[in-house]
Amino acid sequence: RDLTDISLLEAFVHLRYVDLSENKLQDLAPLSSLTHLLWLKVDGNLLSSACMQELPYLQLLSFARNHIKDLEGITHPRLANLSLKENQIQTALGLSHGQLFSLQILELRGNKLESTAGLNLPKLKTLYLAQNAIESLEGLEQLGQLATLHLRDNKLERLDGFCSSMKSLQYLNLRNNGISSFQEVAKLQVLPMLQALVLLDNPCSEEANYRLEVLVVLPQLQRLDKELFEADERQEAQSIRWNRQREDKVRP
């Protein structure tokens, strides 16, 4: 509706669900009186900041397709689902970890992040970071409940930064990065629950015996690039692993 002014909403203090998407809003200050809000979508506006007065019951918040450059001022204590996809965010270091202790789903796809530093949210279960410019993985130690991590279409060449404290991570999508060696893939051995991995469109996926080599270093995997491993692949990978271990022991 090309709205630029939502001051009329200040009077509707009991509103629970508000969708203001696809307008021309630059200011959400009138929403501060809507203290009963549970659900707010403001996708496709002209917002340059996600900063708002704290809303005590807000559970879902979507700022997709705005002009937001940082994560400062998001402090809603019951927020479980936050989307900031397709903005211009360059760093996550402004996240208010102390206030976002209920956040379970964070969507940051299509931004300008170069690092994962600042994303240490202990209750987070699903994290979308595809289509950024991420070159390094940092500050992931607190993500003990994270089960799903999307890092497709980034600039990762090394897989340092994963750690054994990420004990719930089951699905990891690394499609279309710059991972060229199976030595890098082997660094994922620290993830005890990893079951599904996507590595298509990385240089290593063009190597001979690609599936076999991944299974040799990650024997717990159930599927690679969404295809389940067959029993004969597991047997062959196990045989290769044993032979290499034997060679390593013999080598002076």
Automatic annotation (TrEMBL):
Keywords: Leucine-rich repeat, Repeat. PROSITE patterns: LRR. Coiled coil: none annotated. InterPro entries: Leu-rich_rpt (IPR001611), Leu-rich_rpt_typical-subtyp (IPR003591), LRR_dom_sf (IPR032675), SDS22/Internalin_LRR (IPR050836). It holds the Pfam family LRR_6. PANTHER family: LEUCINE RICH REPEAT CONTAINING 23 (PTHR46652:SF8), LEUCINE-RICH REPEAT AND IQ DOMAIN-CONTAINING PROTEIN 1-RELATED (PTHR46652). This is LRC23 protein.
